[in-house]
Amino acid sequence: MSSIAASRPPPIMKLPPAALAGLLVVACLASTAAAQPTLSRAVPAGIPAGITTDVTLHGAKLAGAKAVWTSFEADVEIVADESEKPNAAQLHLRITPAKGLPVQIGGLAVATAEGATAPLLVMIDDLPSVAENGQNISRESAQSIAALTAVDGVSQAGSSDHFAVEATAGQKLSLEVVAQRMGSKFDPVLWLRDSDGNVLRLADDDASLAADCRFSHTIEKAGRYLLEVRDNAYRAGLAYRLRVGDFPIVSTPYPLSVQGGEKAQLELTGEDAGDAAPVVVEPEQVHSAPSQPIVARRKGGASSALAMVMVSDLNEMTELDSSSSKEPLTPPCAINGRLQNPGERDAFTFMAGKGDKLTLHAFSQSLGSPTLVSFQVINDKGAPLAESPFDASGQPRLTWSCPADGAYTLSVRDLLDRGGPQFTYRVSLEPARADFSLTLKTGTPTLYNLPGQDAYLAVEVDCQRQGYDGPIELTVAGPGKWKLQQETIREKATAAKLLLVPDEPFEPGTLLPLQIIGTAKIDGQDVRRTAGTLAVLRAATPELLHPPAQLDGWLSVGVKGEAKPLFELPAPKEGVRFTRGVEETTLVLTPKRVDANLKTNLTLKLEDLPKGFTYRLKVDGKAPKEKYELTLRGPKDAEAAEHELTLLAFGDIGGVGQVLRQPVMLRVVEPKKDKDEKEKPAGETEPKPESTTEPKPESKKG
Amino acid sequence: MMRNAPVTLLTLLLSSAALWSIACAEESLEPIQVGKPARIEVFPEAIELSGPRRQAQLVVTGYYDDGTLQDLTRAAKYSVGDAQIATVDDTVVRPHADGSTDVTVHAGGHQVQVAVTVRNFQQPQPISFTHGALVALSKQGCNAGACHGSPSGKGGFRLSLRAFDPQLDRMTLIREEFGRRTNPLDPEASLLLAKPLMRVPHGGGLKLTKQQPAYDVLHDWIAEGCRLDEEDAARCVRLEIYPPTGRVFKRPAHTQQLSVRAHFDDGTVRDVTPMAVYSSSDEEVASITDGGLVVGHDRGEAAVMIRYLDFIDTAYFTFVSDVQGFAWKAPPAANYVDERINEKLQQLKYLPSESCDDEEFVRRVYLDVIGILPTIDETQAFLADKADDKRTKLIDQLLERPEYARFWALKWGDLLRMTAGQVGDEGVYKYHRWVQRAFAENMPYDQFAAELLSASGSTLANPPANFYRTSTDVNDCVETVSQIFLGARLQCAKCHNHPFERWTQDNYYGLAAFFNRVQRSKSQRTDDLVIWSAGKGEVTQPRTGQQMKPWLPLEGETEPSANEDRRKVFARWLTKPGNAFLAKVEVNRIWGELMGRGIVEPVDDFRDSNPPSNAALLDALAKDFEESGFDRKHILRTILNSRTYQASSRTNAFNQDDAKYFSHYEPRLLTAEQLLDAICHLTSVPEKFGNLPTGTKATQLPSPDLAESDFMKIFGQPERQTVCECERSSDSNLGQALQLYNGPLVHGKLRSENNRLRRLLASGKSPREIIETLYLAALSRKPSEDELKTLLAHLQSKPDAQAEALEDVCWAILNMNEFLFQH
């Protein structure tokens, strides 16, 4: 699905569809952020499927763009800037999205030799785009637009943008502002007025969309109508896309979810979805993303609404199926329902045995429904046994233990007792099993710009355990070969920091989509879980309430040129002396931080130890004034010889680190032959305070 | 001895002073001119006294042929058939032995007999703890909020406020201090008596004399062993006040003896007149003695509050008198507002002022309806209009202007505590827009109230839900709802029964039961809360530990169904036809906004002891409001079209003392926002408020914290921390004077190179034209010849500095009361 294009000659890379998830929101390292390319907006912000469109990307440090990635299937060509002074703040593209793509929001990112940009969200849109003219700050200077148009605008301080549209009597005008769904901070307020300025409609937040707004209005009298749009708090410089068309006002399809591999006909629901054409879908059995966009149009309409359907592995039932057959639900399954009237409570019967553990999970708002789902499990006497907790997303999850064999009722309602055709929901019922899940640690990046040499990634992962306390092995999936350090989440541990060291350097301008995979054997079964990234994306872009679910789990790694060193770790040139019979010697290393932002401890490793030798590491003091004591232990009868060890030091800022490799000579010496040197041990602190080796007496503890 | 002398002397002095003040009211009474009443009535018609401690207050009323009446109790003569059975002692019947007799009352040539029956005179009648000792302590003010009834007591002695918690008082009086407070063996030595008598030093001073009835009650209760009441002792269930509320007295009639009787659940009735506690809503109109004698002092109305334990009743009295030279004359009534006002004024002998002139009206109505001054063009167009109905037309036009909704959203922003700090930077715009839209679309007020009270969901997506964001907990909800929609300040009932009103602590927590299930949860969006109602959760009364059922004023407890959001039950009650609170409180608030003073004042302090200055008008407005479908514009239109609203602020000889009955328009300082806008308007130099569009006026700001202004703070702009109307200060202060004198805002606008006066100067206008223009902009009138002459002379004195001289003129105008005040 994803596409790549580049200025000629383009580097050809095929990326999985979700490759941009990590790029969505996060700038990489604070210390190097200024050096990497960035994107601020695309003009136009909407691109029609199947039509070649010239798009200008605005941003910084875009000169020398090597590649462009899209999360949707498209041909992309970088139009070379042949002027004498190329404008690094703009990049011109020629994009042809695949024909037949439904209206959707996707990502677009650029890679240069300085790294990759965070993605810019753009729209695949069947409405033609025009740019706001910037002069339309009053009703008198309203910019005239056609009735089937999308305007890409930018808010101005302390004023609204005004547009005028001609409409005929009986025409249904659909109006929508897409802003926060595309990651903008713009919180739209939209007015529709007649030519005399009388307010016909005012739209602010929408129960399904949150800050974005939309409505449809049937025009009574032919004439000129005025649109006014502004940011709620009059903030300037924020992008929005105002869509004016004939699309239905759709919240979700019904049912909300279909089973992979099954053909299904979906009804569209929403504030004004009455005459929308039904949608037939047949998702692949092995679905790559939990939801996918669908075509949502009125019958005979020329423009579409944004809508998507969930795809699952479960037996997907609808409220009608359940009530008509009156057969109890049989978990694992999912029930799709809707609350037609205010205060309505839907009831479903299911059978459960004593000791059964069921996980009930509601879905609604992430799919576009306004429902804040609340549910109860009720016994045959009508007594509530369990109630879903409040969930900020309206999608609560509950694990329930069945107290006795019998029939139970799942009662579903809207927490605010609202109702209407658009108040759809889905609740899955699955047996609870010992399991675990992984998520990227909140606050860590999903976009990493990795220097080409001597660098590594540090990815922090949180582990949520559900009845499983054993170890979890971490691996990385994606292009390139990586050497992993600290790759196990220990028993009962709930966090880990995984170090990924490239086996070979990558070319600057490369983009590497990676996933962190955890595996464990639970009850004899291999369980494999991908570390989720949605929570991190949400935290980094609070306006974007529902990042596209198919992008979940992906880290994006851009490759840039060389980076400045973060630290130094002087090691004794004369090496480490190990006196036979003494068993232990200690090497004291004092790091020197080149980048003051490196405020955490280093990770040290010693490799290529001769047989029988081990070491242990002790950190003395706190960063940035810490010292490392590497105590080397060897057999009493180690042969006198010299061994070249490799000392590895890792230090990272914001997930991208420097790997320092240096040889350290281990000299195993006879006590007698080393008499003179005893008086002046190698690496003594005076001349080189950063590192010392201190022979230790034989350990009494053995 | 010498060391004690000062204390003794002080005690003596204080005692004398207190006794003098107690006696003073009686001594200053004018004699009653009995005249020739057509008939007299005596209350009670028959007297039954059961036990030696019972007594009965007589009240004698004379009715005259001209329809007036007068209290003759003090003037009547009393004779008793058998003085062995009972006697009349200073208008009070007291028993002496079992038996029957008659009291004959003689007044104005009439006589009426009252049968008296005495029973159980020989039976012991121990003093009740609750109905004796606690009543006596209340009577003497010992358990008042400023004394031992304060939360921490006084001098280590704490009583429950107004005896609302007898359990606590029992412990305090009998058990604390090792029982030193009461000494049954030697009652005189009890601290409970020795201190208020000032036999030992008492921080509160002399609070009791042996002559007062409370002394005997407390003394006897102690002497009888400080007995507590039996579990099944009779309980008071109601008070009966005589005469009933509403009497009107015309001078020379000016006093009224009250009779207060307590009805008990065993069917008995006791006269508690000497032990009830009295207070007047307006001491200048009428005061009341400890013995229940109301004394009128001036024309007007007063509410007398009568309290006995936690029973409170109120009686209203009106005092009128002839005014020399007064002859009723009033502009014709435009509507029922004028009719009700005129009735009151005529009764109280106040003469309404003439109607204001057009210049006054146009400025007044602009400021009141849309918050800003009219432009010069608007003023001139109005003044030039010769149509008879031009005022009505202007009112209609102003009510349809967008500034109307913005200005009234500012007023409600104060009440709803609309600040970015409390509802978020995004939320404050949305909440403000919702309120503004409600005014613009003239949302019926019952719907407005219901939407606020039952709002759920995201505070960003459903802005009225912010009502429960600013009301951060259940107590805040109770107090906010009651102050905004019930016009009642319930804060004190949280800890104890309301000292001045019928609201009890139980009522407070009964109301809380409607709101305690409200949940406030963080949503996914930044700075957003989801407001929702949980399906369970009850309120416990902290003092009694009782689980409270939802309670509705004037209706009592209610049982909402299990799944119902209780807030909706409350909203339904509040907005149902005939609700006693919703319409009255809102029309009073609107009246207060237009007239500068509510019919009930303060506008959010409705209580029996704070009566409306014109109850008939308040009732009529409320009825009209409800019948109009709670149409606020209709009520505004009705008031604005009345002669009362359009009365001149200039008083006449017959209304200059009136500050309460709306006989003339009451000038008031412009609000902070109005004043800032007016200065901007006069100088033509607008203010820029934060991110808000250029041209946004101070009266249109969503919140004061979006654009902090020292100028507005100084002039009383509220921070919106409370729901009290009183947070907006209208007091003048030195800071205001300094701001107007040479504050940076005024100075900057006068010195601006692009201000009105410089533009006028640059356009070649003559000094006269410029001065006239400034006057029209500021005052909606042209200068008088005298003013013009003075100002032109000033300009001529600075021929080389005309701009500066005009700055002086402008400065002088904006320091005129006529500019600073709404008039």
State the secondary-structure class of chain A.
mainly beta
Based on Cα principal axes, name the global outline of chain A: globular
- What would you report as the Rg of chain A, rounded to the nearest angstrom? 31 Å
* Spans of at least 5 consecutive residues with low confidence of chain A: 1-33, 677-691, 694-702
Quaternary organisation: heterodimer
Structural class of chain B: alpha+beta
| Basic shape of chain B | globular
Amount of beta strand of chain A: over 45%
Number of strands of chain B: 29
SSE blueprint:
The complex is a heterodimer of chains A (702) and B (823).
Chain A: E1 3-5, E2 38-43, E3 46-47, E4 53-60, E5 67-70, E6 74-79, E7 90-97, E8 104-112, E9 115-116, E10 120-124, E11 129-131, E12 143-145, E13 149-154, E14 161-167, E15 172-178, E16 188-193, E17 199-203, E18 213-218, E19 223-231, E20 239-245, E21 252-254, E22 257-259, E23 264-269, E24 279-281, E25 291-293, E26 296-297, E27 304-305, E28 308-312, E29 316-318, H1 319-325, E30 333-338, E31 345-352, E32 357-363, E33 373-378, E34 384-387, E35 397-401, E36 406-414, E37 424-431, E38 435-440, E39 447-451, E40 455-466, E41 472-477, E42 482-485, E43 488-489, E44 495-502, E45 511-522, E46 525-530, H2 534-540, E47 555-560, E48 567-568, E49 576-579, E50 584-589, E51 592-593, E52 603-607, E53 614-620, E54 627-633, E55 641-653, E56 656-669, H3 675-679, E57 691-695
Chain B: H1 5-27, E1 39-43, E2 46-50, E3 56-57, E4 59-63, E5 69-71, E6 77-80, E7 86-89, E8 92-95, E9 99-107, E10 110-119, H2 129-139, H3 166-175, H4 191-194, H5 213-223, E11 236-242, E12 247-250, E13 255-257, E14 259-264, E15 269-271, E16 277-280, E17 286-288, E18 293-296, E19 300-308, E20 311-320, H6 336-348, H7 358-369, H8 376-384, H9 390-399, H10 402-415, H11 420-423, H12 427-440, H13 445-453, E21 457-458, H14 467-470, H15 474-485, H16 505-512, E22 518-522, E23 529-533, E24 539-540, E25 547-548, E26 551-552, E27 556-557, H17 566-575, H18 582-595, H19 615-627, H20 632-640, E28 668-669, H21 672-683, H22 710-714, H23 734-742, H24 744-751, H25 756-762, H26 767-779, H27 785-796, H28 802-814, H29 817-820, E29 821-822
Parallel strand pairs in B: 2-10, 12-20
Antiparallel strand pairs in B: 1-4, 3-8, 4-5, 6-9, 7-8, 9-10, 11-14, 13-18, 14-15, 16-19, 17-18, 19-20, 21-23, 22-23, 24-25, 26-27, 28-29
